[in-house]
Amino acid sequence: MSFRRGRRIGLDIGSVRIGVASSDPDGILATPLTVVRRTDEPAALRALREIIDEYEPIELLIGDPKSLDGAARAAAATALDFARRISLATSTPIRLVDERFTTVEAHHALAAAGKNSRQRREIVDAQAAVIILQNALEFEHNTGEPAGRAMPDEESEL
C-alpha cells in the first residue's frame, strides 16, 4: 500500500478544549487550525462539522489517550465517546492514534518558540493536534499503512 493522497484533520480531544490541525493534500505538513471549546458540546460539534465540511478531509486522526503502559485511561472513554459523536455528525472515517507525550511535546515546542505559560495554555491543544497528525502522516509515509486503528464500534472494547 502506498501513501493515500488527501487532506487529513487531526484532533486532540481534551476535557475543556479540542485542538484542531490540518494537513496539506500530499500529507507532508500538519499545521494548527484552531482550538474549539468543549463547554457547549453541541456548539463544539457544529464547529467541528463546519471545519470538516470546509476542508473535506479523507479521514480524521484523533488522539487516543493512553497511559505510559498502553492501558486506556479514564480520559480515553470520554474522548472516545466524543469521537463517536463526531462520527455520527459526519461521514468522514476516523482513526485513533496513540497520543502519549503529545501535550508534553507541544508545551516544550511552544516554550522553545518563546510562548509564556498563559499563551501556551490557549494554543497547546492545537499544537498537540499538529503532533498527532504529523506523527500519523510520517507513519503512513514510512510504512504505506494508515496510522492508528479504526474507531471501534459501540460494543467493542477500548
From TrEMBL:
Key words of the record: Cytoplasm, Hydrolase, Nuclease, Ribosome biogenesis
Q: Name one GO molecular function term.
A: nuclease activity
Localization recorded for this chain is: Cytoplasm
Similarity annotation: Belongs to the YqgF HJR family.
Q: Which InterPro entries match?
A: RNaseH-like_sf, YqgF, YqgF/RNaseH-like_dom, YqgF/RNaseH-like_dom_sf
YqgF/RNase H-like domain span: 6-106
Report the protein name in the record.
Putative pre-16S rRNA nuclease
Name the GO cellular-component terms.
Answer: cytosol
UniProt GO BP: rRNA 5'-end processing
Write down the HAMAP family for this protein, in alphabetical order: Nuclease_YqgF
What is this protein's gene name?
Answer: ruvX
**By its UniProt entry, which Pfam families does this protein fall under?**
RuvX
Gene3D superfamilies reported in the protein's UniProt record: YqgF/RNase H-like domain
Give the protein's biological function: Could be a nuclease involved in processing of the 5'-end of pre-16S rRNA.
- What's its EC? 3.1.-.-
Query: Chief location of this protein?
Result: cytoplasm
Q: Which SMART domains match?
A: YqgFc (SM00732)
Entry's SUPFAM superfamilies?
Ribonuclease H-like
